[in-house]
Amino acid sequence: MLAPLLSTYQQAFVEAGCDEAGRGCLAGPVFAAAVIFPADYHNAVLNDSKKLSEKKRMALRPIIEQEALAYAVASVSAEEIDKINIHKASYLAMHRALDLLQVKPEYLIIDGNKFIPYGETPYSCIVKGDGKYLSIAAASILAKTYRDEYMNALAADFPDYDWLSNKGYPTLKHREAVIRLGITEHHRKTFRITDPQLTLF
Questions:
Q1: Where does a divalent metal cation bind (predicted)?
Q2: What does pTM read for this prediction?
Q3: 20 known member of a binding site
């Protein structure tokens, strides 16, 4: 049984948790989400998306969307990633999600150890925050499920890259397809798509 996560990092201000999905992928956008829960919110099942099955993530998504005070999901395209790099793109996706929130956050908690400030809004970066705070965990689930759906839709037109299974991550089958077929318009051209040791026999 996973330990329950904390409701808030601080209680003086309206707090939004932020996380991204797809940072390490070879193809597709990076997605990010921002979630604001009530200060006393509790959910014993909610946890880091990586610790949950796809079925559990999808079951939790409508609960998050119904019980959050506000939530938003946004993305940055592969083309934009190639222009500004994946690090800046991850933070830009978070900024875009924050822009879409119907409730203005007064404090941000960000999964990870770095962030580009969002205006004057104070923030804290929390390493493995998606396994510590409910709003970050919820953001990780929204970002992951929305991105997975996006990649599933693309997969229908590009079946050889196995995106239904790998969602754009650099699996062996995905990299082998790139070697055989080349890249698509959805691939990140600045990423190192193939490992130099990877050869086909």
A1: 19-20, 111
A2: 0.93
A3: yes
